[in-house]
Amino acid sequence: MSGSIPFYQKHHQHYDRGYRSLEAKSKMSHYQTSSRYTAGSSTSATSRSRGLRVSSHSGLEESRLSPVTKRTKPSYLAVDKENQIIGYVVPIFRGSQEFATGLSDTEEARVRDTAAYMARRNLFTSGVEMERSEFSRKETMRESAERISLNKRIHEHGEHFKRMNEDSLMHTPEFVIKPRSHTVWEKQSVRLHCTVSGWPDPRVTWYKNNVTIDPFANPSKYKLESRYNVHSLEVNRCDFDDTAQYHVTASNSQGEESAFASIVVKRFKGEVDESLPAPRHGLVSEYGITFQTHIVDKFGVSFGREGETMSLGCTVIIYPSLHRYQPEVQWYRGDVLLSPSKWNHMHWSGDRATLTLTHLNKEDEGLYTLRVITKSGYESYSAYVFVRDTDAEVEGAPGAPLDVRCLDANKDYIIVSWKQPAIDGGNSILGYFVDRCEVGTTHWIQCNDTPIKFARFPVTGLVEGRSYVFRVRAVNKSGMSRPSRVSEPVAAMDPADRARMRGTSAPWTGQIIVTEEEPAEGVVPGRPLELQVTEATKNYVVLSWKPPGEKGLEGVMYYVEKCVSGTDSWQRVNTELPVKSPRFALFDLAEGKSYNFRVRCCNSAGVGEPSDQTEATTVGDKLDIPSAPGKVVPTRNTDTSVVVSWEASSDAKELVGYYIEGSIVGSNVWEPCNNKPVKCNRFICHGLMTGEHYVFRVRAVNAAGLSQFSPESEPVEVKAAIASPTPPYGITILECVRDSMVLSWKQPTFIGGADITGYFVDYREVIDGVPGKWHEANIKAVSERAYRVSDLQENKKYQFQVRAANMAGVGIPSLASNTFLCEEWTIAVPGPPHDLQIREVRNDSLVLLWKPPVYQGRDPVNGFYIDIKEADAPEEAWRGVNTKATEKSFFKVKDLKEGEIYVFRVRAQNKAGVGKTSDVTEAVPALTKPGTKEIVVDVDDDGVISLNFECCDITPDSKFVWSKNYEEITESSRLTTETKGNKSKVVFNSLEEEDIGIYSCLVTHTDNASASYTLSEEEFKRLLEVSHDHKFPIIPLKSDLAVELLEKGKVRFWLQAAQMSANGKVDYIFNDNLVTQGEKYKMNFDKNTGVIEMVMESLTPADEGTFTFQLKDGKATNQSSLVLIGDVFKQLQKESEFQRKEWFRKQGPHFIEYLGYEVTPECCVMLKCKVGNMKKETSAMWYKDGHQIKADEHLGFTEGVLKLEIAQISKKDAGVYEVILKDDRGQDTSTLNLTDQGFKDLMNEVFSFIANSSTPLKITSTDEGIRLYTFVSYYNDLLQVTWHYKDSAISFSDRIKSGVVGDQLWLQITEPTEKDMGKYAIEFHDGKDGLRRTVDLTGQAFDDAFAEFQRLKAAAIAERNRARVAGGLPDVVTIQEGKALNLTCNISGNPVPEVTWLKNDREITSDEHCILKFESGKFASFTITGVNTSDSGKYSILVKNKYGTESGDFTVSVFIPEEAGGKKK
User: Fold this and answer.
1) How far apart are CA 524 and CA 522, in angstroms?
2) d(CA 1236, CA 1266)
3) What's the pLDDT score for residue 283?
4) What is the dihedral of CA 914, 920, 923, 929, to 10 degrees?
5) Are 1270 and 1257 a contacting pair, CB within 8 Å?
6) pLDDT(542) > 60
7) CA-to-CA distance for 498 and 504, rounded, in angstroms?
8) What is the pLDDT of residue 908?
9) pLDDT (tens digit, 9 = 90+) per residue, 480-534?
10) How far is residue 1348 from each of residues 419, 443, 932, 1264, 1270, measured CA to CA in Å?
């Protein structure tokens, strides 16, 4: 049985550990349901809507069930999907009272789950194998009395259950807590456990690689336990063969459920399992070999978009590895086995399996499973793939439909179905259009004129025997969606014919030929049988029937008739063409009207009797849109996913599935969680933002449409679900006296997503190697990872186990420790340090913390030694880190090798010597994790000093823990802690010497994110100075002292203060001497703007030195200096002199802007300069290469622009141009060098204008091929262009040429082929980026151009090869009677034309008198041996071939010699 949980959850490996909605539900019920379901009075009562109350069978008072202040008492009531109480979820109990086990029938289970538990609800059981012990007679009597009381309660409880509807309590098994995967070292033991609920009680079976585990067949290896719905499998002393996938199955009469977990056994490097057979030499047969398959490097939950390509892959390790043996690799989508196709490419490289989805569509969404099959079984791995809609071509258009299929194919029609998209674009979908395309063509034809809303449609108008593919498009008021993925090809033929043709394969583009049997004439067919309406919507009705029994051997066809119900007016529907198949779709029926239908058979012998008519059928949709789903319940799952479950739509027919949408609370923006409908009522929504709060809603879909949305769910925060912690491990003894022992242990590897609230310790005595019963060592949880177990007996042996607890509950116990002897330690050296922790791991260092040994030895501990070795190094590789013992309980290990993996241990010493070594730490690699931050010290404007730490990997449950010298800071008089978001800081209230030390910060619920800051004595002094400077700020400056030049070369020194009061003062210092206002120095201080300046007329060598402005405003001071010496001073002095000269130059005519050029839009070059201070007498002379070319005199402006235009510039215009301004006040000169590089720069600018003037690249056709061309406004012979094809420069040949005609640049492709298709570009070079014009000569553009080329080519060929009369015939021939007439003309044409001679428009033939010849296909001759008067007339030669016809005319006039003047007859 598959159970109620769908396929993708049963086989989803990452679901096993992360998809813990039921687990979270159970754990949180400890705290939530206790207030919802509390005990009532002791009177038996029944709640008909919410199930039974606790008091109805417990008899306990309400106060016994209420939470108490000291420790919250969890409620263990289990509820079903309707929140009805169905039983109890019993976690791991702790206590000394035993319970009977082994009950299997329903009544005994009820006893255990009700009376037994409620009578002992405040006690705990150890959760391990219990032993029966002998009771005294008094204890036996007391137990008998209790049993009588319990039996009475059981009877009352049973009577209560008889009055209840037992069916409402029954439900399929559910895993409240699923088994968790483990990775262990070889020879260690491991335990898988799970908690199962269900009614009746499920039967639990464990499997290894799909093979049932039999503990009796191998009792030393496997141990199975089942108590209080908690089931466990213990695997002892694991070896490499135990690496496998384990799964547990729970089944009852209501269904079956499975959960999966993996055990991976690691082997230390260098170890070899001696139990494995030695490899044989030569070829090894696979017979007798057990293959072990491991799937690693797995793909995770993936997200893609339509049209993209996605690859899924896993690395597969098969042991033993046989060279010639290859496993069978299968890929599944859901439960459908995938086959290679154009959509799915599969590859197996020998150690890696890859599935490539070449073109994602929403049909590709689903759970993908890789299954690797060997002779020993199979291994599988699954993960979900989500496919989002691609962007719509029209904004607001809906998503594409999906899953287009052909349901019913016949000769006359094919019914096409599809699924509606999840995205409607914001507007409801108006309907769908169905397109068809005949296989082998690319021409799509729309099948319906108006959109249809029903997701099925019969397509008619097909050609029998031909194959078609279909696609569907959705439309709303914004526009049309993209088309769906095309369906699989289907042939328009009857199923019987298709079955008959199944043995042969039709060509993929061809037509299936249907053969008919030899007809037998004269038999009129009988009545069609079993006529019925198989489908009816408001758009169409589908009829089906069976052929008649009496039809002879001749094939029959059918006529369909209809009539309105209540009338007898039958109307033939298919009047033009009979139906060939026993199915037919009717359209154009009036919606709401009722019709009857009947069918007649016909053949060449006649038309048969009609069939029985159908019942009255009303035209309308028979399938209703499903109702909205019910209550939606989201449950925390992982940091990026949420499990959403909902109540199924009631009375939904032909349900296709459900769409789930999610929205961040407050955003009102809904996003689809799935783009392919899911049929189950539970779904994992991935890709959510960690820490955000989401609400969800669901709607159902069938062929009639989409339902209304369900009510919105309650908000849920996206974060990992919590669970009880895994067992602690590494139990060791820290001290032993006569009656007590101090234990220590290591924190669980997985704390369940919540802080550990404490630990519980159990102990048992071991006598002669046989362990006894477990006893509680502590009733109240201990927070430390060390505990003294008291009341032990000296010289007795004991074993211990530890459980960890968090808000989710108490976890399962650890494995039993080694056996320890309780005897007092008398050694002089200390015991082992304990609780080793590693912090602040970096590439070259880390910090190691530990706690001092509990057992001090003879003398107090006075130091510690730290040992280190590589994780894979042998024991003799241990080496010391510190040569001198450290007195502190922390140590920073430096000089580590980046990437190397290390382990550490610590030893304590006293005066007697060095004691025992601590337990070895976990292996840790020396690597700085990405995003690691360090503590940053900050001093604000008020001088307040703080330490700041930021963590990028913070979780909602994380806390910042600050420590000084690695001891948590609890006293707040010296420091104040502030935390906001992912940042935290401690502020020193008043920094003093006692604050010196190492400050560290640890972020909980992260991957050991931590950092430290050492406040040394030197750093302490520095921070005090910085703080003092901040407390007493100097005058801020907007700009420091700077120098600039003014008009006439004056030198200005200036700075600007941010703010100064009216009492502010400034002292001006030069070379430590105070300078004052005078002829050389002019000072100014604008207190409104804060600008302070000092101006000097000029600089002399004596002014070289340091200038300083000293500011003072109350207590605040500041100063700024500027050093002007050496080259800096000389450059400033030179610039000052230049500015003075410039000022004098500008007193006469001068250039405001020196000679330059610009290129006009007409590609003319304009030389121009701007001049000023002009007058009428000023002249401007233009020179090129020293020769005057132009003179401008009597200029009528004071300031203006002088221009010189160069039209159609060429190389001859290169040279040096000069303009001289002159009048009585002086002259000024400006020169422009347009040679070499200057001329190149000018031409590049011209080329840029030409390029920008070019028109888009266009396509035209000639009789020689295809021509690409562009026009420019002006063409220059120096212009360089490059033609490109597919981003590569074109190499020109006789077939591909380029050229220029006027202002047109062209590329000619002679005799183009499909190889010439592609992207073409012309690139204009302008010395910079250039400019490209492109055109895409592909698709329709190429087809149109090629077709036009073919047409022009054909026309040219026709013109060139048509039949012609080349010449040789005169217009008029006058000849004497009796003479011989011989005329010859040239004929051309290919193929050789046909020649016909005419006389007076009548055809003549060759004879003895008139000889007609056509020789060599070129020469036609006309000969009359002896002309007479009857030969006079109009003659014509007519030449004709397939390309055309042409004629040549001439006139023959015969005269008699006797007639005077050669009179013509």
Assistant:
1) 6
2) 40
3) 36
4) -60
5) yes
6) yes
7) 10
8) 95
9) 999 999 999 999 887 766 666 654 443 444 443 444 444 445 678 888 888 888 8
10) 44, 22, 67, 11, 19
